[in-house]
Each structure stands twice: as C-alpha cells, then as structure tokens.
Backbone:
C-alpha cells in the first residue's frame, strides 16, 4: 500500500543483536497491527496498537505507536534465528479498508 | 481449530481460463479480505467485504470479482486469467478488535 511505508526493506543481523523496524504513515493511524510471515506461509498476528504513545511487548518483541499516531516501531531484543521472516505493518485507511506496508525481510545469522 | 481455510492451495491456469478461489472462516467474523502478494510489492488488497451480501474494491480490483453470499465464505473469481495474475493469494478475516487472521495462501500460476 502507498499509505504505509516500512524501513528498512531488509535486514541481516547476527544472532543476539537488537534491531528495529519502522512503519510510517502520512495519515493518522486509528489502529496499527504488526504481523510476521514465514517464507511461503500465511501471516501471524503479533501485536495491535491503538492509542498514541502505546507500547506493547511479547517475549522479546516490543512495539510502540508514537504520540501523533503516524509512526510505529517494532524492536527485537537479542534476536534469534526463529525471529527470521517478513514483518509487515497493517492499518485501516478508512471504512475497514485494511492495508499493509511492503514488509521488512529479516535474516538472523547463527 | 480451522480458522481461515483457502482452497485450492496450488493451481496452474492457462491464459483465458476462469477459476474461483474459496475462502472459508469459522470464527463468525463480519469482515473478510482478499490480497495478492508479489515479490517486492508486499500485500495488496484486491476486494473486501464488511458483511454478508456486501463487497468493496480495494487497491487492485481489476480482473477480479468477489461474492459473499454466506457470512463464512468469501469467493474470489478470475473470469479470464492473465499471466499478470500469477501471484500468491491470501484471504483474511478480522475479529471485532481488528485483528486479522490469514489463510495459508493459494499459489496461482497463469501460463
């Protein structure tokens, strides 16, 4: 979707390193969702953020939505090979029109 | 727990042939979606539905039609397949909190 941008496009990190993926919108987001996709498979829901300044964590993954609700970050602490995959952010752009960013491809080297 | 089921999982079509992809969900969700995923393009929304009997166009609707005759099913049709429609197609349904649940995808090749 052109409404959502993600950076970086791809990322290669050594196991144990921290990393951050960003999702940016030109419009105010009324809900921001993070998903992970393993190669060749469907998407798995990770986290949902709805309030400006909100932060959620699950295991070693933390997601934040900025105060203006136009940018979200996904941070992985002490990355593991199991974190490898494609991370996508998704958002409603009006009327349940649910779109996704282009994705960030993460590789974790053992 | 079936969740969202797509059929078929793989299909090869000849240019000009037609086919229907079926998406079924057993979670009683109102909202359902069809996406296509292509290398470097991410997920692009084709059509979606906010309830039985309703459909709406997404980002890339041309060449596709959809129907939502029953709440649990969302069908995606290709009337005359073209090589540009070679892609992986994903169906999703959303719960009242907005979380989307995806099927495993249908890999379609048009030759």
Residues:
């Amino acid at each position: 979707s052109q409404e959502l941008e993600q950076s970086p496009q791809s990322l290669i990190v050594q196991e144990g390193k921290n990393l951050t993926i960003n999702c940016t919108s030109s419009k105010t987001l009324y809900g921001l969702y993070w998903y992970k996709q393993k190669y060749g498979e469907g998407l798995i829901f990770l986290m949902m953020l709805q309030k400006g300044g909100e932060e959620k964590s699950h295991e070693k993954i933390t997601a934040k939505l900025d105060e203006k609700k136009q940018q979200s970050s996904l941070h992985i602490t002490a990355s593991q090979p199991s974190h490898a995959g494609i991370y996508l952010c998704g958002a409603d752009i009006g009327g349940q029109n649910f779109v996704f960013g282009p994705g960030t491809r993460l590789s974790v080297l053992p | 727990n079936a969740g969202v089921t797509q059929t078929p999982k793989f299909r090869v079509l000849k240019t000009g042939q037609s086919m229907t992809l079926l998406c079924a969900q057993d979670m009683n969700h109102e909202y359902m979606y069809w996406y296509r995923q292509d290398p470097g393009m991410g997920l692009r929304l084709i059509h979606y539905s906010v309830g039985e009997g309703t459909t709406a166009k997404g980002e890339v609707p041309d060449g596709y039609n959809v129907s939502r005759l029953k709440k649990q099913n969302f069908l995606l049709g290709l009337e005359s397949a073209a090589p540009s429609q070679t892609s992986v197609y994903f169906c999703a349904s959303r719960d009242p909190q907005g979380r989307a649940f995806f099927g495993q995808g249908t890999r379609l090749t048009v030759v």
Notes: The two ends of chain B are 35 Å apart (CA to CA). Chain B has a mean pLDDT of 94. Chain B touches chain A through 27 residues (CB under 8 Å).
